[in-house]
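Collaborator request log, item 7. Partner lab (contact: R.S.) asked for a structural prediction of Dynein heavy chain 7, axonemal to inform their binding assays.
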Amino acid sequence: VDQESFKLSESGIYKVPISPTHNETLEYLSTLPLTAHPEVFGLHENADITRNIEETNSLLNRVLLTQTQLLAGKSTGSKDEQDIDPVLLICTEIMKKLPDQFDIEATAEKFPIMYTNSM
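Returned to partner:
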């Protein structure tokens, strides 16, 4: 860590600043990515995938818990009303409110990706 530009990560994105003055340190910090990559914590890049899978599983498990509670509290309406899944009704209503899917290829032609314009 005492060496100039000592790499703190394999990619070299995270390193000891060359000149540790206040302004140069702030300038270096402004070049760092806004979202922390797993390598910051000493993890393999697949750790992001694992975290995303676990978050998705957690979300779906909670949705299933909600569905169980909704099904237990069915109203005493007609037989047809009782057979309709409340979660399915909510999802259908949400899907109706979403805009139609757009043509990705046509959009890519109209608005090509220019890396000079990226954040």
